[in-house]
Amino acid sequence: AQSVSQHNHHVILSEAASLELGCNYSYGGTVNLFWYVQYPGQHLQLLLKYFSGDPLVKGIKGFEAEFIKSKFSFNLRKPSVQWSDTAEYFCAVNNYGQNFVFGPGTRLSVLP
Amino acid sequence: GAGVSQSPSNKVTEKGKDVELRCDPISGHTALYWYRQSLGQGLEFLIYFQGNSAPDKSGLPSDRFSAERTGGSVSTLTIQRTQQEDSAVYLCASSPRLAGSLSYEQYFGPGTRLTVT
């Protein structure tokens, strides 16, 4: 069965710090990869996605993620976080014919 | 355009009662998913519909849980004889997934917060 792990449960950063959130998955075949974000009191929104092609994908609000197939990883990065990035971040994987599998989430707190 | 909507937004019920949660997907989206999000937990997959059929019910935690989808649109998730451990946020998502499509994404609704007392 597929599984998704996220390295950090809770990350605390100051504004302007750089961010990297880890995501690893277990499935060995072709996968689609996603990062979703849930701001306080809001519903889940798609941040970025990888289907194929360039393994470095750019999303909204200055976020990017890199798919490294050999490491089964899809880490999320942002060079300079803002207070408004405070949210919960979920990595998700799906492959053809299967459901989406979500990681447990990483809570990001950005201190002003 | 309109996103995924869910109703009610909040539901408080007594242990042992039945509840129905509703999801209205984005118009034209063929796939519909139900998830459960408990406090401090990730998303737990419950069931997935492609059109009106449910090819994957593997996530339903017990036979007290059931779901249906009619007309390829609205879906209801029913929990019978609710228990306190059913308290969670129930999320619905829809996707423009077409049979045979390799790449698609989900669009989430705001969720229904269920509290069983």
What does this structure look like?
- The complex is a heterodimer of chains A (112) and B (117).
- With 112 residues, chain A is mostly beta strands.
- Chain A has strands at residues 4-6, 10-14, 19-21, 23-25, 32-38, 45-50, 56-58, 64-68, 73-78, 87-94, 101-102, 106-111.
- Chain A is built from no helices and twelve strands.
- The N and C termini of chain A lie far apart (41 Å).
- In chain B, 0% of the residues lie in helices and 49% in strands.
- Chain B has no helices and eleven strands.
- Chain B starts with a strand and ends with a strand.
Which short descriptors sum up this protein?
heterodimer, A: 112 residues, mainly beta, six-stranded mixed beta sheet, four-stranded antiparallel beta sheet, 0% helix, globular, B: 117 residues, seven-stranded mixed beta sheet
Topology readout:
The complex is a heterodimer of chains A (112) and B (117).
Chain A: E1 4-6, E2 10-14, E3 19-21, E4 23-25, E5 32-38, E6 45-50, E7 56-58, E8 64-68, E9 73-78, E10 87-94, E11 101-102, E12 106-111
Parallel strand pairs in A: 2-12
Antiparallel strand pairs in A: 1-4, 3-9, 5-6, 5-10, 7-8, 8-9, 10-11, 10-12
Chain B: E1 5-7, E2 10-13, E3 19-24, E4 31-37, E5 43-50, E6 53-56, E7 65-69, E8 75-79, E9 88-95, E10 107-108, E11 112-116
Parallel strand pairs in B: 2-11
Antiparallel strand pairs in B: 1-3, 3-8, 4-5, 4-9, 5-6, 7-8, 9-10, 9-11
Span of the ends, CA to CA of chain A: 41 Å
What percent strand of chain A?
over 45%
Order of helices and strands of chain A: EEEEEEEEEEEE
Strand content of chain B: over 45%
Choose one word for the global shape of chain A: globular
**Mean pLDDT reading of chain B:** 90
| Poorly predicted segments of chain B | none
Total strands of chain A: the figure is 12
**Rounded to an integer, what's the Rg of chain A over CA atoms?**
13 Å
Give the overall silhouette of chain B. Answer: globular
What is the average per-residue confidence, as pLDDT of chain A, rounded to a whole number? 92
Order of helices and strands of chain B: EEEEEEEEEEE
